Structures are given as C-alpha cells and as structure tokens.
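User: Okay, second chain of the day. Same drill as before: sequence in, structure tokens out.
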Amino acid sequence: MSSGSSELSASICPRGTGDSIALAALKGHDGSLKSAAYLHDESQAVARAYGAVCTPDFFGYDKDRKLKYRGRLDAGRTSPPPKDAKRELLEAMRAIGQTGEAPKEQTPTIGCSIKWKA
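Assistant: Same drill. Structure tokens below.
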C-alpha cells in the first residue's frame, strides 16, 4: 500500500484498526462483512469532481445520471444506528428507482474530512 492509501485507510478506520481500505469499505456497523462497491481514489480526482468533503460521502443518481441524493448512509456513525433508524441511503435510492425523486429531507454526511493532496 502506498502512503496515500495508508492515510485514507486511517481516515476510514480512525480507531487504528489496521483494516485495509477494501475491508473497511465492506464492513457494516456491526463489524460483519457486507457486499458493496467502493472506490479507491488514489489521485483524489473523483472526489474533487464530485465535490466530496468527507468520508464517507454518498451521492445517489437517477437513470439520467442527475444527482438526486447527497446525504448520509444512516443515523449510525462509529456504532450501529438505533434499531428503528431509517436506512436513509437505501430508502432514497429505492424512491429514486420507483418515482425518479429522492426524499426532500436529506441529512448531510458527517465524517472524517478529506485530507487533500497538494
């Protein structure tokens, strides 16, 4: 892993778990492995193009590639969300798929700020 990868891994896993980027991207709040797509943006070009400001930062698009959702995954941060918490990203993407529109209320992502390279 390059030093840039280590920095990103540290920001994804702030508790110093030593997890790789790929493993961190696939872990759920409960520590179990999930199936998920993730992006390792070594050059930070994608983050800059999308206007990402922290990790994780979620963007949901409709079939015409129009941004419809920008918000958090759910109410959890470093621990599982409450049992009755909405699955905000999942619900938004389902709504976009069914109606073409995301919920009007979208809670911004809160996470580690991106450490921009010079």
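Residues 1-19 have pLDDT under 50 and may be disordered.

User: Thanks, on to the next one.
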